[in-house]
Amino acid sequence: MRLLKTNNNDGCALCNATWGEYYREIDNEKMLFCCNICADIFENMVNEVKKRTGWEKIDYIELHGNYSSGRNCTAFSNGKRFSYYFRTYSDGKIMEFKNID
After folding, report:
1. pLDDT band for position 2 (cuts 50, 70, 90)
2. Boundaries of every domain in the chain
């Protein structure tokens, strides 16, 4: 079984904050988030990547950026990669999502 991981290892899977303790299962992986909004954002992002790539699973996501400026990311699955930029509204819905490659 492959497990979804990110480069944020200290705390929240999306923003790396260490103050929260909110868990959600995404792609069969129990993931730590600081809050339900970060979990919503992350889940929406994962679903959008899978929709655009046709991938069933994502192995790893490299995230750089933040809520206000948006995030440049690269997702990896079975040796393939997909780079993108995204921003969200405060409720976790995607405002902008662009392929970078």
Report:
1. low
2. 5-99
pLDDT in tens, 38-96: 999 999 999 999 999 999 999 999 999 998 899 999 999 999 999 999 999 988 899 99
Q: Residue 1 corresponds to which tokens in the numbers above?
A: 């079984």
pLDDT at res. 5: 93
Beta bridge partners of 71: 65, 86
State the SS3 of the chain. Answer: CCCCEECCCCCCCCCCCCCCCEEEEECCEEEEECCHHHHHHHHHHHHHHHHHHCCCCCCEEEEEEECCCEEEEEEEECCEEEEEEEEECCCCCEEEEEECC
* Residue 53 Cα to chain centre, angstroms: 15
Residues in the chain: 101
Encoded tokens for 24: 């959600």
